[in-house]
Design a protein that fits this description.
The chain has 347 residues and is an alpha/beta fold. It contains ten helices and twelve strands.
């Protein structure tokens, strides 16, 4: 990466793109002083003075998805997807520091006993499914996989309710044309290092906060044990078999579209949490005012699809989703292009 690829402000001296694939401690005090000096040097004003307000939405840019040694590293077809995405994204934040009004980050947040983790299911011999197992309605109805009664007490439910809810959940996924239930490796565990923002982006967000006197916002999602929650707006299934509410939608993301002049989106994974967040956002936009779609900009070079070599490749689904979003009025853009060349952006 070279500085000339990124128009706008130069890259600050502390930024090291070579560390994008590593864990390290952000030196907050040092970065804070650097950000204050940088703002003064480049006459960067507080975000409150922005006449055209831009929000940057970062979807699940966490160690668990963004670093090669972690549980659900999103390598894409290249194998270096999330690392390359974050190098570009950090550079984008720095070079556009004076134009980004607010940064909001979502956090996939899990505990061990959840419907998409192996401990939740067993077969007739008491064995758990392997990571990346795809579970269909037929698998549940035939008894190939069933709810693990041993975890019922921990979830404060009966084994019968657990099995009933699992069956209902799988059927709802198929009826709503959602992805099949996937048994993911244990990941993004609350309290664990995988849950944190990847340091390259954490540092850039902190630098922005100090440089623009703009508090970053954080959205927690995915903690409900009975449903997957790819989208930051709402879980995959909202009600149980009896029609009782499992979870509520979160309107923080859609409020960004209402409150800001532009919303830029990047993160992981393009095929899952980014795609479903945008799918839900588009549904909300179309129900309120379809013209709002024109406020949304998808950073196509700051997101990658899930690819597990030899197992599954979600690249076609991710690309098809972005094509749908563009057809609905959203803009698919590249972080390396000047903002003023993007449709609808002021010079």
């Amino acid at each position: 990466m070279t500085e000339h690829l990124f128009p706008g402000l130069p890259l600050p001296e502390h930024y090291d793109p070579g560390k994008a694939d590593q864990i390290w401690k952000v030196p907050y005090e040092k970065v804070a002083l650097a950000a204050q000096s940088w703002a003064a040097q480049h006459a960067i004003q507080p975000a409150s003075s922005d006449s055209f307000r831009i929000a940057l939405l970062l979807v699940d840019i966490q160690n668990t998805f963004c670093l090669p040694d972690f549980e659900l590293y999103v390598g894409g077809r290249s194998g270096t997807g999330a690392v390359d995405d974050n190098r570009r994204l950090a550079a984008f934040i720095y070079t556009n520091l004076g134009r980004l009004t607010e940064i909001t980050a979502t956090f996939d947040t899990h505990q061990a006993i959840q419907i998409f983790h192996a401990i939740y299911l067993i077969d007739e011999d008491g064995r758990h499914p392997a990571p990346h197992t795809q579970v269909s309605a037929e698998d549940i109805l035939s008894g190939r996989w069933q709810f693990n009664p041993a975890v019922a007490h921990s979830l404060d439910i009966s084994p019968e309710y657990g099995q009933e809810q699992l069956t209902h959940y799988i059927q709802q996924l198929e009826a709503r044309q959602k992805y099949a239930l996937t048994i993911w490796p244990y990941h993004s565990m609350l309290g664990g290092i995988g849950h944190a923002l990847v340091p390259t982006i954490e540092e850039a967000v902190f630098f922005h906060t100090i440089g623009r006197s703009a508090q970053a916002e954080y959205i927690i999602k995915g903690a409900n044990p009975f449903t997957e929650s790819y989208s930051a707006i709402g879980p995959e299934v909202l009600e149980d078999a009896a029609g009782k509410q499992l979870a509520r939608k979160n309107d923080q993301v859609i409020r960004l579209v209402e409150q800001f002049d532009a919303v830029l989106v990047g993160g992981q994974a393009k095929s899952h949490c980014v795609a479903w967040t945008m799918e839900d956002m588009l549904s909300e936009i179309q129900a309120r005012d379809p013209a709002l779609a024109g406020k949304v900009y998808l950073l196509e070079d700051c997101t990658s699809p899930v690819v597990v070599p030899g197992v599954i490749d979600y690249t076609p689904q991710a690309d098809a989703a972005f094509q749908r979003f563009a057809a609905a009025g959203m803009h698919v853009v590249r972080s390396t292009d000047p903002l003023e060349t993007w449709p609808g952006m002021p010079e």
